[in-house]
Design brief:
The chain is α+β, with helices and mostly antiparallel strands. It is built from five helices and four strands, in the order αββββαααα. It folds into two domains: about 70 residues, no CATH class; about 90 residues, no CATH class. The longest helix is centred in the middle third of the chain and has 63 residues. The protein starts with a helix and ends in a 17-residue tail after the last helix.
């Protein structure tokens, strides 16, 4: 049976309202797909096509195509979800980087502390054997490569270097002898 165009238009108007309501409901449930969604509608038997606000109704196939609408909704949803995932991943990466940097700094400080402890132990042993030793004499013993050339490495002479600080601490804490040993010079008379 062929219907007049006014009846077809009325039918499509009702269908369009149903489709819009269904599209709103389906859009709310859309999670992560951008594929075109198709809703079956079996009440139409004429071969007509109606375009209505981003979707089309093809009565020959009996399908309501919401491809454009759902594709746009899906793209927006996917883009927002991907953006949020990127932000979370960026925060995780920054947290991992900060954690790694803190661990590296702690390991560096521990290595420095152990190195200074070895230097301090060497100085304590050296000062027990050589109570009147000077900073330069101790460095010559600590770093024999400097003793060969007869000149101190310039890093040992910079104010505030750890070697000088350790030497000053240890010498300041050592008791001074009541009568310092005298160096006897041999006098050869003629």
């Amino acid at each position: 049976m062929i219907r007049p165009m006014s009846q077809i238009t009325n039918i499509f108007s009702g269908v369009a309202e149903d489709v819009r309501a269904t599209a709103s409901s389906a859009a709310a449930k859309l999670e992560s797909t951008t594929a075109a969604a198709k809703l079956e509608y079996s009440g139409l038997s004429t071969a007509a096509k109606l375009e209505y606000k981003g979707f089309s109704v093809n009565t020959r196939l009996g399908l309501v195509k919401l491809e454009d609408t759902f594709s746009a909704l899906g793209d927006k949803f996917y883009t927002a979800k991907a953006q949020k995932e990127r932000e979370i991943e960026e925060k995780d990466r920054e947290a991992r980087e900060l954690d790694r940097m803190q661990k590296d700094k702690a390991a560096e400080e521990e290595g420095r502390r152990q190195c200074l402890e070895i230097i301090r132990n060497h100085l304590i042993d050296y000062l027990e054997r050589n109570t009147e030793a000077t900073f330069e004499e101790w460095l010559a013993d600590l770093h024999p490569e400097n003793a060969k050339t007869g000149e101190l490495d310039s890093r040992f002479l910079i104010p505030g270097n750890p070697w000088a600080a350790i030497f000053e601490e240890e010498v300041a804490h050592r008791p001074k002898p009541a009568c310092p040993p005298r160096k006897l010079h041999r006098v050869i008379s003629v």
